[in-house]
Amino acid sequence: MEEVMLTFIAVEEARKLVLEAVSAVPEERAGLSDALGRTLAGAVVSPETLPPFASSAMDGFALRVAALASLPAVLRVIEDIPAGVVPQCRVEAETCARIMTGALFPEGADAVVPVEWTEPEGADHVRIEKAPEAGQFVRPTGQDVTAGDQVFEAGQIITPPVVGMLASLGIGEVPVRRVPSVAIITTGDELVPVDSALAPGQIRDSNGPALAAQVVAAGGRPLGPFHARDTPESTREALERTRNADVMVVSGGVSMGERDVVRNVLDEAGWTAIFWKVRQRPGKPLAFGLLDGKPVFGLPGNPVSSSVCFEQYVRPALAKMLGHPESIGRISKAVLSEPIRKAAGLHHFIRGIAKQGDDGRLLVRPTGLQGSNLYSSMAKADGLIHLAEALENPPDGTEVDFEWLSWTGR
Ligand code: AMP
Ligand code: MG
């Protein structure tokens, strides 16, 4: 297996290999109360027409516009039509019906006069000061959706208004993709949990909670985070414990150090190594392969490398597993507002802050120091500035791709 493993490959090739290795997870059905954030597994075709009947858009009077040839006009009110009630009378030339917003529009009428344009006149008449146009303030049947229309495509993420739309169409259950489970294993003898005090040489395990949050943000279900020590036994044990997950993400232990045992343990467990090392910064030692046919990501342990590699490789894999049409983040063309020092050779993901320039162009600049251990460079970022392998010391004014981070919502 080791002999077919690719090494030191380009970012695009790594992404392609990851996407080729995963496929959509099976579907299941979800009720509307469990559907938020899930992904539709099939298109939704409307069984009904919306609105289902013509109704009034205002509180007012349903009438025939022809009755208002001279103004003001006094008409007899023949009926009250509240919402949810079927009108009993037909509106004739000199009559009208008092109608509420959303109430069924009566036969014989062709417009609604809002109550603000009227004055009561005696017990059962109304004086109308101003005429509407024919059809005005009437909501026609089927203005929104016709029965048989496709209202949503497969891959649509179920947002609050999607829930509302489905409910209005009488669809209480939809086919969705199963939520992929993503096991998270962090490795490192130096790591302690968030609620522990630090002894000399120790740091907090930040990748565990951050990766779990990234899994949720990407539509997956985190298992763990579990922690393993930098020994084959401890790493093996964590791996066995989580082997039933749809995806495995191991943080740390994939570099060249003596204690970087993760790839050895995966070899022993019989994984198919697909690649190790990508021509990128941060995240060069990234490892990827399949164990029991399921994707395993060995993310470099530096917090920024872990976070960036998740967004660049794990999130696209989850997007494909969920059947989303787009697997990568939204990219805008932008211009560097500062020069960046860079040698040729690696693709750099510079954590960037974006600002609209006076000329309408999107200006981007680094968040600050870019060390892969410096978390604030990532936490402050709107997105990632892509600097291609060949680019060397790009000056300000250089045109670049800027990939919005998924959680910025842009
Ligand atoms: P490694 O990839 O295991 O060589 O780790 C690279 C760097 O990332 C080291 O400085 C580690 O201490 C740090 N690191 C590894 N795992 C984590 C983690 N879960 N949380 C925070 N820092 C980590
Ligand atoms: Mg380590």
Structure description:
- The chain is α/β, with parallel strands linked by helices and 410 residues long.
- It has 4 domains: 6-25 and 179-322, 3-Layer(aba) Sandwich (Molybdenum Cofactor Biosythetic Enzyme, Chain A); 27-50 and 143-177, Alpha-Beta Complex (Molybdopterin biosynthesis moea protein, domain 2); 55-139, Beta Complex (Molybdopterin biosynthesis moeA protein, domain 3), CATH 2.170.190.11; 331-408, MoeA, C-terminal, domain IV (Beta-clip), CATH 2.40.340.
- Helix content is 18%, strand content 31%.
- It contains 7 helices and 27 strands.
- The chain has helices at 11-21, 160-168, 207-217, 232-241, 262-269, 303-321, 376-379; strands spanning 6-9, 27-31, 44-45, 55-56, 60-63, 73-81, 95-99, 111-114, 118-121, 125-128, 138-139, 150-152, 173-177, 181-187, 191-192, 203-204, 221-228, 247-251, 272-278, 280-281, 287-291, 294-299, 331-336, 347-356, 362-366, 383-387, 399-404.
- The strands form 7 sheets. It has a 7-stranded mixed β-sheet with strand order 1-19-21-22-18-14-17, with helices on both faces. A 6-stranded mixed β-sheet has the order 8-5-7-6-10-9, with no helix packed on it.
- A hairpin with a 2-residue loop joins β21 and β22.
- The two termini are 41 Å apart.
- The model has no long low-confidence stretch (mean pLDDT 96).
- Bound molecules: adenosine monophosphate and magnesium ion.
- Residues 187-188, 230, 252-253, 301 line the site of magnesium ion.
